[in-house]
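Tokenise the fold.
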Amino acid sequence: MSAILGVTGPIFALIAVGYLMARVGAFQPADLKALGRYVVMLALPALIFRAVTARELSALVDPAYLAAYLGGSLATLAIGYGLSRRAGLDGAASTFQAMGMACANTGFMGYPILLIALPAVADGALALNMIVENLVMIPLVLILAESSRGRGLAGVAQTVRRVVTNPIVLSLVAGLVVALTPMTVPGSIAQAIELVARSSAAVSLIVIGGSLVGVPRTTTAGRVTAVVAGKLVLHPLAVAAGFAVLAVDPTIAAAGVLLAAMPAMGVYPILAGQYGQGAPAAVAMLAMTVAAFFTIGGLLWLLGLVPA
């Protein structure tokens, strides 16, 4: 148990600090919003750029990993969407039920855990997952959400614009350009990027904790339970199945399963709120963050990353 807490303890301790700081009023919602924007606009893009440019191109182009993780994520998204529609939910509600199950918190929560549990592959797994999540999963969710509004091609065009101007996508593209060409990043700039990148883990966890304050507690229990079970159980199982079928290297596969077992990505309640699904998403986010304390610990033990 102490070994598990050694990995998960620092992560959830920082989340608790963020929660307490917001609870006592030291951080106001506007402060958390600013910190969140700092992570999304600067720290996480810097982290991704560093991860991509620090790797050999062969480590970034891992077709088996990308296919397995994407396949598991798409299967989870499809199952979540289909079951939600069968339960009588409309298109927007079903879309964000499915997103909560299939889109993991790779940058804000998964990466800090990998830094402790599997530091050798943390940067590589982060870069690969960001390719899947930001180039496929988020655009697909936005297209589904826009289609629920009946906006047709106009909605798709708006989604494309949002994706191509996303700082995370831009940092991925910039990193790939550097990796594919003889270009080098000057030492002083590389050091500045490194400093900003290092701040992403701690600041993002503080933001997650603070964001849990004031979450509405009233919503359909069945909807929340479905999202939590889908995210913390179905998604990692689906990704693990993909890794097993495609015989992905066990170390990077373990990292991928761990990332899939994270709660939903930090922007989940924000995106859901733009389509009238903010309250259920926020409650599900709270529930899965609490439940993840136990499920992630159990998964670390099952993967053999901590002793029994």
Notes: Residues 2-211+220-297 form a domain with the Na+/H+ antiporter like fold fold (CATH 1.20.1530.20).
